[in-house]
Each structure stands twice: as C-alpha cells, then as structure tokens.
Amino acid sequence: ESAVNRIAAGEVIERPASAVKELVENAIDAQATRIVVDIADGGRTLIRVTDDGHGIAADDLPLALSRHATSKTSGEDLLNIHTFGFRGEALPSLGAVGRLTLTSRALGSDGAMELRVSGGRQDPPRPAALRQGTVVELRDLFHATPARLKFLKSERSETMAVTDTLRRLAMAEPAVAFTLRDVSDGGDRVLFRADGAANLIDRLARVLGRDFTDNAMSLDAEREGIRLTGLAALPTYSRGNAVHQYLFVNGRPVRDRMLTGALRGAYADVLAKDRHAVAALFLTCDPTKVDCNVHPAKTEVRFRDAGVVRGLIVSGLRHALAEAGH
Ligand code: ADP
Ligand code: MG
C-alpha cells in the first residue's frame, strides 16, 4: 500500500465513527430497509455493518474496492448527487486502514461471494454463505498506522461518536430500521435501536424523545428555492448545551457553524444566553445550490448563497416562534 493511498484513507477515515458513517451510507444507498451495526472496543477491533440492500454482483466485488470506483455517479454530474456516496473512496480507504471482509449477495443472484483485503492487498473472491444484502466487516482499524491508533479517544468516547453518527443517519432516514450493538467480549448490548418509522416525527420522537416532539414547532419556510422543514423546540424546552441541534442538507447530516449560528440568532430574544434549543432542521434545495464535496468526509457543506440560507433559518424559526406566541 502506497503512502499516498494511506494518507488519502486517513483523510476519509479518522476514527471508528467515520468508518461507520461510510458503511451505513453505503447500505442506505443500496436501498437497505434494515441496517445492523456491531462494534467492539469502541469500533477499534471490530465494526460490522449488515444490510438487506441490493448487494454487489460477484463480478463487481473487486471493483468496489478499487479507488475512485463508484457505481453512483458518472463524474460529470458531481453537482447533482442524490446518493450519499459518490467518491468511490470509502471501501478502498477502509481496506487500507484495517482488515476488511466484504461479503455480498446481489439481488437475484444464486450465491454470495466474499472478498478480503488487508493493508490494501486483496485475496481472490470466494463463495460465501449469505442470504441477502451485504456484510462489511472491518477489524483492527489503524493496526498498520500506530500514529493514528494513538489519536483515538477512550472506548467510551469512540462508542459515543459511533452512536451519534447512527442517530443522525437514523433521523435522515426515518423508514430504515437501525440497530447498534456493542459486541465487545462476546456480549450483545443494544446501544441504539429504531424500528422503521412511518414518518419523520415518529423517528424524531424515537431518537430525540417524545418530550421533544411534544414541545416542538413544526417548520415549513422557503426562500429562493431553498426549503426549511423539521422541528425546533419551544423556548420552554431548551438544554444547557447545543449538542442536540441536528442539521441536514438534502438528506445528509451536516455540521456547519453558519447554520448553528443562524439557529442561535433566531432564538436570541427568547432564550437565555446559556440555553440552547433542541432542533432537527432539514434544508432541501436544488443540488446545484449546495456543494457537499468540500471535504472527503462530506459532513461540511458550502452554499452558493449563505446569506439566503441564514435568512431563511432565522425568519423561518422566528415566524414559527411568533405563531407559538413567543
Ligand atoms: P461510493 O459510495 O462513493 O460509491 P464506496 O467506496 O463507499 O464508494 O463504495 C464503492 C462501491 O461499492 C459503491 O459505489 C457500491 O457500488 C458498492 N457498495 C459498497 N457498499 C455497498 C453495500 N452495502 N451494498 C451494495 N453495494 C455497495
Ligand atoms: Mg460510499
């Protein structure tokens, strides 16, 4: 494995949570309805994602593991992306930083195949037993890069980051059933579970609590082709920190200072300085208005016109607050 490949891999995969994010997004892109994530030791020794999606054809398995091979975009329409994945970087990166086993059975195929990669070296595919979908198992993350291993936080922190990643994806995909289990030391402890939900509100109630959904305002505002929906808490339901603010752009969980700043600004007159609104905000717009290709890990976005988005959030929330009598 070349140093260049390993550096690129490190940029996509920083910690177990980033591996989980990439693998779960792949499962969602494959139209999975049930996704099970098993981790051990905070994901350091094991991450296993099992899905019931459309699988990968036997002939395509080696391709799925080669750099910049993606079945999801032609390359010309990078600005027009409807799937989570589009770079074709995740699986090769994971194969470079850990011991990867990819087992898959394509829809309609009469058997499953398995492929192992370690340190970037592939074994030839061989037949395996799997009824449906795909299982990706990643063992010993960063075993070949002790410097990266050293940067991992405690098992507890890494587990929390994995859980947070899964909660965000669960909010982005209400209909999909998610399970996260800690299987350390042969155990089987459910850390997070959400059955397929009929709608966003039910999913938010599951992930953020019925208390939140019962004390939240429903949002629907639009400005210059950008639409804001979701739920934001009434001022009476606030928290002492801002961790429960979730943002989604065109269905992707994102983190963005501008967006959280706009949220804070909208509540400035109705919340004390040390209080924060719980919120799940969904922005949708024509994909050409937003660039989600800023960073390999894709949690950052850049809007063509940030001012419009900021204005939309502030006015959308203030309008909802006014309607609720604040
Ligand atoms: P990307 O998601 O950007 O296309 P990845 O490296 O994450 O790149 O995956 C490479 C390819 O492998 C995907 O384009 C897809 O064709 C296939 N693939 C990966 N994971 C799955 C999965 N769980 N189910 C079906 N196909 C998958
Ligand atoms: Mg992907």
As residue ranges, the low-confidence spans are none
CATH top-level class of the largest domain: Alpha Beta
Domain count, please report it: 2
Small ligands present:
adenosine-5'-diphosphate, magnesium ion
CATH superfamily of the largest domain: Histidine kinase-like ATPase, C-terminal domain
What's the helix count?
10
- For the record, give the distance between the C-alpha atoms at the N and C termini, rounded to a whole number: 59 Å
Output the helix-strand order.
Answer: HHEEHHEEEEEHHEEHHEEEEEHEEEEH
Q: Give the C-alpha Rg.
A: 20 Å
Q: What kind of assembly state do the chains in view correspond to?
A: single chain
Family: Belongs to the DNA mismatch repair MutL/HexB family.
Keywords: DNA damage, DNA repair
Protein name: DNA mismatch repair protein MutL
Organism: Jannaschia pagri
Question: Describe it for me?
Answer:
This protein is α+β, with helices and mostly antiparallel strands and 326 residues long. The protein folds into two domains: 3-194, Heat Shock Protein 90 (2-Layer Sandwich); 209-323, Ribosomal Protein S5, domain 2 (2-Layer Sandwich), CATH 3.30.230.10. It contains ten helices and 18 strands. The strands form four sheets. Strands 1, 2, 3, 4, 5, 6, 7, 8 and 9 form a nine-stranded mixed sheet that branches. The protein has a five-stranded mixed sheet with strand order 10-11-16-13-14, with helices on both faces. A hairpin with a 2-residue loop joins strand 13 (245-249) and strand 14. The structure holds adenosine-5'-diphosphate and magnesium ion. Magnesium ion (MG) is lined by residues 22, 25-26, 85, 90.
